[in-house]
Write a structure and sequence with these properties.
It comes from Romboutsia faecis. The protein is an alpha/beta fold and 163 residues long. The chain is built from 4 helices and 7 strands; from the N terminus they run βββαβαβαββα.
Length: 163
């Protein structure tokens, strides 16, 4: 299976195929609204605005598995992200990223890019960078600032421009 073989539901309930992101550089992030790392939404939005016209997408997946830091409804989470951080990148319905009920996309991502000690997601704001061919290029720890990923994103985007 590849990244493009998966589907997920956006906040509005619309089922989206990852095929929609074919040919783009994608950053997949499990998010939370009440976490010490929640301010990363600001940086995520900044890099989205900077690179979206070059073929870059961010896919946010709220998750309540870590200290119940995203217990609100999908509507509440969506509103929080827009009002507090101006999030305009795609946010999907709340999912599980670990355990037997983990979303199939996250099962795939974790197998493609294992963490430091295990493949399980350790906390909110773990990030996965996917290239234009749907390959998982790198996994970033929750504490890695989205701004520190810019060079990796630019490198992948430059490959689009020069092909």
């Amino acid at each position: 299976m590849k990244f493009y073989d998966f589907q997920a539901r956006k906040m509005n309930g619309q089922e989206i195929s990852m095929h929609e992101y074919e040919g783009k550089v994608v950053l997949v992030v499990n998010t939370a609204s009440k976490c010490g790392l929640t301010p990363q939404f600001k940086e995520l939005q900044e890099i989205y605005e900077e690179y979206k016209s070059n073929g870059f997408e961010i896919l946010g997946f709220p998750c309540n598995q870590f200290a119940k830091q995203d217990s609100g409804s999908n509507e509440e989470i969506h509103e929080f992200c827009q009002l507090n951080y101006g999030v305009s990148f795609n946010m999907f319905e709340k999912i599980n990223v670990n355990g037997k009920d983990a979303h199939p996309l996250y099962k795939y991502l974790k197998n493609e890019a294992k963490g430091l000690l295990s493949k399980e997601i350790k906390w909110n704001f773990t990030k996965f960078l996917i290239d234009t061919n749907g390959n998982v290029i790198k996994r970033y720890a929750p504490t890695v600032s989205p701004l520190k990923i810019k060079n990796d994103i630019e490198e992948l985007l430059n490959k689009i421009i020069y092909i």
